[in-house]
UniProtKB/TrEMBL annotation, chain A:
Gene Ontology MF term list: 4 iron, 4 sulfur cluster binding; alpha-D-ribose 1-methylphosphonate 5-phosphate C-P-lyase activity; metal ion binding
Catalytic activity, EC: 4.7.1.1
Name the record gives this protein: Alpha-D-ribose 1-methylphosphonate 5-phosphate C-P lyase
Coiled coil: none
Pfam families: PhnJ (PF06007)
Protein purpose: Catalyzes the breakage of the C-P bond in alpha-D-ribose 1-methylphosphonate 5-phosphate (PRPn) forming alpha-D-ribose.
Protein's UniProt keywords contain Lyase: yes
Automatic annotation (TrEMBL), chain B:
Record-linked InterPro entries: PhnI
Protein name per Swiss-Prot or TrEMBL: Carbon-phosphorus lyase complex subunit PhnI
An annotated GO BP: organic phosphonate metabolic process
A GO MF label: lyase activity
This protein's record includes keyword Lyase: yes
Highest rank taxon of the organism: Bacteria
The organism of origin for this protein: Gemmobacter aquaticus
Alphabetical UniProt keywords: Lyase
Length: 292, 366
């Protein structure tokens, strides 16, 4: 049901035009953070307002939208955002990665490869990869202008000196087309390789911080590392206990108070699809026995 | 067995239903009307209008009711509504010299043209609980009235300005940038800063202003004038070719007289801090003028002493309570993907350390 009191996809056309201009600029300068006049949305800042505005600017009536949070379609905030667009845009929705034309995500990139017909919209809390090294926006903008990224390399080096590893496991910084250092949003570093050479358009929206940035299709994205400490995409060394997948990103679930744990795919669509195809993990049951 | 986090949708619907029930409370108690909130919780309404940046007492009352009295939540409701409204045009700057005054005090002069008018203030009340209000109180005795003085009530600052004792207020014809239509860019000019702090969180501004009084960027402020009353809002109507008053708003204006500056070439002068807030919001207006003054250190050639209230980027980035509360509370959302990544890393690091320790122990034993 569409709520007719509001414009298609909630935002007025002027606001969408402003957003689209910012998005086009972001696509033209991959990895560069474009300031935009973020609006107050009917959900709180920090809950995906940037992603929601970008999605609203991208949606057309015949789009099919998928919304995930932590890889799952049924987490509460994903449900809330999906409902918002069902209500204000009346677009079709899906949980199938392959069927979606626009995917809004928080903290994950779907396991299934994306295509040229898709847009992946990331929700971004802190768009500035240098923010925790330099709190001032006036300074970090200058650092990007001058391509002054020494501080970031020093930080990574200090990690290695102290811990023997780069102690960043998510929101792992990347360099885009050899120019801008970019925050890929708090995706686990396991997902970083999927950023590069991706056929889909990847858009990043940070509402509270009023920034949009983008990766056009087939952009080269390199995770920062050192020759002697190369980047490693890490994940829990287990198979999915429901579908048996051995290469997907896993959530760790505590199942009793005796240290019992199980590992399951964080991408619920990926897991369900595999189980429908008959894959069964250590603790899984065939799909037919499950309550949907 | 693993229970998948299914049913998010139903859980949300049920939570909303419960929330609505809690909002209404005991059905045996009469429901609040918007009129009651608007008339009897006026200062809450004022705060919601000021920080919501929308002058509409009825909508503010609705927001307070819907938010169960949580004012920041009410402010958020108003902001989210406000942003959907079309922008029809801008008004002329309101003329606070022409204000119909309810309250006007100056801490710098004992008496002055226009006089001191206390108005409805808590200032000299004794903070004793009035239990008559707990019983179903009768209507209060009507306050004494007088016909308003026809004399003009000039700004105190104007009186000082005439003698050159205070820095002249800069006059510009430029249209200030609009914080709600363009991203905040730093450095900001004073107009933009004032825009940001007039809708800033009252508590944040209060603490910052207080910190300047205690020495973190001290500017030694006197309340030159505090005035509260209503002013007309005039808008140019293109078809008519002249401006028309479309309504009036209640405002609190505070102008502070601050420590002077001067140099070898310029005689010393007092400096200004300015606060202007919707409704009767004295605490906010005074705090605003202190913070405004502290933020002007650069323009007045003062030292940056590292005080938070002097730091434009710090103040402007953190003063908005709708932004702050959203980001603060978002950490309630699931983060198990990131947390899982951290778990893996921590386990690996601990494993390395333990392996090294056992190696060292083995070597020591040899």
């Amino acid at each position: 049901m569409t709520d007719t009191a509001y414009n298609f996809a909630y935002l007025d056309e002027q606001t969408k035009r402003m957003l689209r201009r910012a998005i086009l600029k972001a696509i033209a300068v991959p990895g560069y953070q474009v300031p935009f006049a973020s609006r107050e949305m009917p959900m709180p800042y920090g809950w995906g307002t940037g992603g929601v505005q970008v999605t609203a600017a991208c949606l057309c009536p015949d789009d099919r939208l998928k919304v995930i949070d932590q890889g799952a379609d049924d987490t509460t905030n994903a449900v809330s955002i999906r409902k918002f667009f069902q209500r204000t845009a009346g677009v079709a929705t899906t949980e199938r990665t392959a069927e979606a034309t626009v995917i809004q995500t928080r903290h994950r990139i779907p396991e299934a490869p994306l295509t040229e017909d898709q847009i992946l919209v990331y929700q971004v809390p802190i768009p500035e990869p240098l923010r925790f090294l330099e709190p001032r926006e006036t300074e970090t903008r200058k650092m990007h202008e001058l391509e002054e990224y020494g501080l970031m390399h020093v930080k990574l080096y200090e990690d290695i000196a102290r811990h023997g590893h780069i102690a960043t496991s998510y929101a792992y910084p990347v360099k885009v087309e050899g120019r801008y250092v970019m925050d890929p949003s708090p995706i686990p570093k396991f997902d970083n390789p999927k950023l590069s050479d991706c056929p889909a358009i990847q858009l990043f929206g940070a509402g509270r911080e009023q920034r949009i940035y983008a990766l056009p299709p087939y952009t080269q994205v390199v995770s920062l590392d050192f020759e002697d400490h190369p980047f490693v995409a890490s994940r829990a060394q287990h198979d999915c206990d429901l579908c048996g997948a051995d290469g997907s990103y896993l959530d760790e679930v505590i199942i009793d108070d005796l240290g019992g744990r199980m590992f399951v795919c964080s991408d619920t669509d990926f897991c369900t699809t595999r189980r429908e195809l008959g894959h069964i993990g250590r603790l899984g049951a065939p799909m037919t026995d499950e309550v949907a | 067995m693993y229970v998948a986090v299914k049913g998010g949708e139903r859980a949300i619907d049920n939570a909303h239903a419960w929330l609505a029930e809690e909002r209404r409370g005991d059905l045996a108690v009469a429901e609040l009307t918007l009129g009651q909130i608007r008339e009897q919780l006026r200062l809450s309404v004022n705060r919601v209008m000021a920080e919501g940046s929308l002058y509409d007492p009825d909508l503010a009352a609705l927001a307070i009711k819907q938010a169960r009295g949580d004012l920041i939540e009410a402010i958020f409701l108003i902001r989210a509504y406000r942003t959907t409204l079309p922008r029809l045009g801008g008004s002329w700057p309101v003329d606070t010299a022409e204000m119909a005054i309810d309250r006007r005090i100056s801490a710098t002069f004992k008496d002055l043209p226009g006089g001191q008018i206390l108005g409805p203030t808590f200032d000299y009340t004794h903070r004793l609980l009035d239990f008559r209000l707990a019983a179903d109180g009768e209507a209060p005795v009507p306050a004494a009235t007088a016909t308003p003085s026809p004399d003009a009530v000039p700004h105190v600052m104007g009186l000082l300005d005439r003698d050159g004792l205070i820095e002249p207020a800069p006059v510009t014809d430029g249209t200030p940038r609009d914080l709600t239509r363009a991203p905040l860019e730093l450095p900001a000019d004073r107009a933009l800063r004032l825009q940001a702090i007039t809708r800033a969180d009252e508590g944040f501004l209060l603490s910052l202003a207080y910190s300047t009084q205690r020495g973190y960027g001290r500017t030694h402020a006197f309340v030159g004038e505090l005035r509260i009353g209503t002013v007309a809002v005039e808008v140019d109507i293109p078809e008519l070719g002249f401006s028309v008053a479309i309504g009036e708003v209640e405002l609190t204006e505070c102008e502070t007289v601050n420590q002077f500056t001067g140099s070898a070439t310029q005689p010393p002068q007092f400096t200004r801090g300015y606060g202007l807030v919707f409704g009767q919001s004295e605490r906010k207006a005074i705090a605003m003028s202190l913070v405004d003054r502290a933020l002007r250190w650069q323009e007045l050639g003062e030292d940056f002493v590292g005080a938070p209230a002097q730091d434009e980027e710090f103040v402007l980035s953190h003063c908005d309570n709708v932004q702050a509360t959203g980001f603060l509370e978002h950490i309630k959302l699931p983060h198990y993907v990131d947390f899982q990544a951290e778990l893996e890393l921590l386990r690996r690091l601990r494993h390395d350390t333990q392996r090294m320790a056992s190696q060292q122990n083995a070597e020591a034993a040899e």
